[in-house]
Design a protein that fits this description.
alpha/beta, Rossmann fold, 7-stranded mixed beta sheet, 13 strands, elongated
C-alpha cells in the first residue's frame, strides 16, 4: 500500500506559515507522494476533515508563499490520552507514514506524543515538526519562521506611531503599544529597531522576563515625559508585577493552561499601564493593541523570513524520507554579514512545551530597552526600515 503524507498547521498563524506549507506540499509532490492537509489542525483530522493538496492547482500552491494567515485553518486543541486511538485510526485509514505539523512549542508536543504513541502501537510514522511562532520562544533554533516578519511589523508600527505620538504630544502625553508574547520579550524588544535617535520612540520597553512595580511604571513615564514632552512605551502582553501577577490582571486560560491576554481576557497590559499612568499624572494618553495583526501582515513580511519558512518545509520532507523522526527542523546562524544560515534538527522532546526567554545580555533593564547585541541579532532578519523627515524648528523674524 502506498505511503502518504499529512500536513497540518496549529496555533496562531504567521505571515510566512503558508510558505512552509508550500515547501512541504511541493517537496512531497516532487517525490511522488500523495499529500493531504488536515483542516483545522489535529482537531479537524480526528473529525475526518481533510483536503487533497496534491490535486490543487500548481498556481494555488505556489501562491501560498505570499498568502497570509493559515490556509489550512488551525486549532488550539490539547491532545488528550483518549484522543490517540482515534488519531491512530485516521493515520491507518489514509495510510499516513509521513506526518508534519507547523507550529510552536505546544504543536511540537502534539507531534511528539502522536509519533511516540503510534510507534508504541506498532504503527511506524515519521514525524517532523516545522517551527513557527511570532514569539520566537522555541528552543533549539536561532529564530523561528514568522518572528522576523512580526518583528518588522512591530518596528515599522512603532516607528510610524512614534512619529504620531511625537507630533500629537500636546494632545496625548503618552502612548502604550502592546505586542503579543506570553512568556518572552523577543517581539516587544524588536520595537527598539525603530529608534534612530535618543528622542525617538520607543522610550520604554517592558518584557515578561523583567518584573515591574506600579511605582517603576509611574517613575519611568514621568521621567521620559519631563525629558521629551511625551512618552512612548512598548510592552509585551505577558509582563508581570514583582509578585508574579499579570499586569493585565487576566485570569483567563486557554486549553493548554496558558494565560489569555488582550481582548481574549477583557483586559490587557497596555490598558493597565495606561490606567496607572493616567491616575498618577492626570495626563491624557492612548493605547495601541495590534493583537493578531503582526501574525498575518504579508505586506510587511521579511524576505529572509519567507525564504527560510519555505526551506524549512522542504527540509522536513527530506528528513522524513531519509527515515528521520521525532525531530524539529531548526535554523543555525552561520554569519551575520552577509547573513548565512543552515538547516539542522533538534529532538522534539527538547522543544515541546518549553518557552525560551530572551537571554539577559540582549536586554538592558536599567535603560528599559534592547541591547546592541540584540539589534545585531535582529537586523539581518528584518532588513532596514525607512527614513522619515523631521522638520527643524527654524525661527522666523518679525517683519514689523
Amino acid at each position: 500500500m502506498k505511503n502518504n503524507a499529512l500536513i497540518g498547521q496549529s496555533g496562531g498563524p504567521t505571515s510566512v506559515i503558508n510558505s512552509s506549507l508550500a515547501g512541504v506540499t511541493e517537496a512531497c509532490i516532487k517525490k511522488g507522494l500523495d499529500v493531504y492537509g488536515m483542516l483545522y489542525g489535529i482537531e479537524g483530522f480526528m473529525k475526518d476533515e481533510l483536503t487533497d493538496l496534491g490535486r490543487q492547482k500548481k498556481k494555488v500552491i505556489a501562491n501560498l508563499r505570499s498568502t497570509p494567515s493559515s490556509a489550512l485553518g488551525s486549532c488550539r486543541h490539547k491532545v488528550k490520552e483518549e484522543d490517540f486511538p482515534q488519531i491512530l485510526r485516521q493515520l491507518e485509514k489514509y495510510s499516513i507514514r509521513y506526518f508534519f505539523l507547523i507550529g510552536g512549542n505546544d504543536t511540537m508536543d502534539t507531534i511528539h506524543r502522536v509519533e511516540k504513541y503510534s510507534r508504541e502501537k506498532g504503527y511506524e510514522i515519521f514525524g517532523i515538526g516545522i517551527p513557527k511562532t511570532v514569539d520566537n520562544d522555541l528552543f533549539g533554533t536561532d529564530h523561528t519562521p514568522g518572528y522576523a516578519s512580526a518583528a518588522r511589523y512591530t518596528a515599522l508600527s512603532v516607528q510610524q506611531a512614534g512619529r504620531l505620538a511625537c507630533d500629537m504630544q500636546r494632545v496625548d502625553r503618552f502612548t502604550v503599544y502592546q505586542t503579543v508574547g506570553r512568556d518572552a520579550g523577543w517581539l516587544a524588544a524588536s520595537a527598539a529597531l525603530a529608534k534612530k535617535k535618543d528622542e525617538d520612540a520607543p522610550h520604554i520597553i517592558y518584557i515578561p522576563e523583567i518584573r515591574l512595580t506600579r511605582e517603576k511604571i509611574i517613575t519611568d513615564a514621568k521621567t521620559v515625559i519631563n525629558k521629551y514632552g511625551y512618552a512612548y512605551i512598548v510592552c509585551g502582553e505577558g509582563i508581570l508585577f514583582d509578585d508574579g501577577t499579570p499586569v493585565s490582571q487576566s485570569a483567563e486560560k486557554d486549553r493548554f493552561s496558558n494565560v489569555e491576554y488582550g481582548a481574549m481576557s477583557g483586559s490587557s497590559a497596555a490598558m493597565a499601564i495606561h490606567r496607572i499612568i493616567k491616575e498618577a499624572t492626570g495626563f491624557r494618553g492612548e493605547f495601541q493593541i495590534t493583537e493578531s495583526l503582526p501574525m498575518c501582515a504579508i505586506d510587511r513580511a521579511a524576505a529572509v523570513d519567507l525564504k527560510e519558512a519555505y526551506e524549512c518545509g522542504r527540509k522536513a520532507v527530506q528528513l522524513a524520507l531519509a527515515g528521520e523522526s521525532g525531530k524539529m527542523v531548526s535554523i543555525k546562524r552561520l554569519k551575520n554579514k552577509p547573513y548565512k544560515y543552515s538547516l539542522q534538527t533538534v529532538p522534539l522532546s527538547e522543544v515541546a512545551v518549553h518557552a525560551r526567554p530572551m537571554p539577559p545580555d540582549m536586554f538592558l533593564p536599567e535603560k528599559n530597552t534592547a541591547s546592541k547585541k540584540f539589534l545585531e541579532y535582529l537586523r539581518p532578519l528584518t532588513g532596514e526600515l525607512d527614513e522619515y523627515s523631521v522638520l527643524k524648528k527654524i525661527p522666523i523674524k518679525s517683519t514689523h
